[in-house]
Amino acid sequence: MYGVVTRNEGELHWPAFDTAFFEAKSVSGRAEQPQPDVVNMVSCFADNATARDSPALVPVSETGERATREQPYFDWAHICPTHDRYREGVLATIEECVAVSPDLRLDDVGFPRPEYCHCDRCNQKFGDSDYTDRFAWRQSVIKSFLQDVRDIVPGRLYLTLYPDPYPGHLQKRTGIDPTALDMIDEFVVPIYDMAYSTTYWLESLAKGFVSRLKTPFSIELYAVDVDVDALGHATTVAQAYAKDVLFGYDASNAQATIRRLDADARDGKSFSHT
Length: 274
Ligand SMILES: [Zn+2]
Hints:
Blueprint: E1 2-6, E2 19-25, E3 39-43, H1 48-53, H2 84-100, E4 104-107, H3 120-128, H4 134-152, E5 157-160, H5 169-174, E6 186-190, H6 200-212, E7 217-222, H7 228-239, E8 245-248, H8 251-266
Helix pairs in contact: 2-4, 7-8
Bound molecules: zinc ion (ZN).
């Protein structure tokens, strides 16, 4: 099956796509009107607007580095997952989404990187907890957030994962242990490239997730301005491992790629995996 990931309402119901994901709240922090009959997507702990307006909500490392776009390894600003009022706001946004459409996808869940968060509130909460291992405590924070979300999402619940299947890496990085989250129905792994001129690394990552996960997962490919043949190759590789293939942010190019694949399948042609 194929899906589209978009921020444009007009692209949500094209016949080429079996499912559609709509960006109801993006990393910009801006919320759009949730859409019916689609999977609405909510960026949870990435929010540039909130970080700008409420700097105290930005996670800090032990050495005082803030998790914002000023750091070379962050493309957007993060928000500390232990801030109760912000969490309530995210849950309220999710409630608005599922009132319109029962399925929901969570983006940007977790701590920004292993060295976060050492804000006063996190230090206090960790100190007050029963945990001695800070990474185990971080996992409990994320798991309880996901449980709160599960309680209010009546439909299928998706969670986006950073594309690192190596055992232990995701837990250390974000606090997500994808093998211990039975409240999630499906993971989405974005594996983005601007060209997909080679695909061996896509196959390695996809295979790694097959080895790790019992929960179904789909792969999201980047479709913007990618050559249709190259995107077709990447799609074929991803399809061999993932439940569905989703295409990000260029519905026209994605549709052209699906049509090409369908035509080739009718002609008996197939893409090689090399
Ligand atoms: Zn914190």
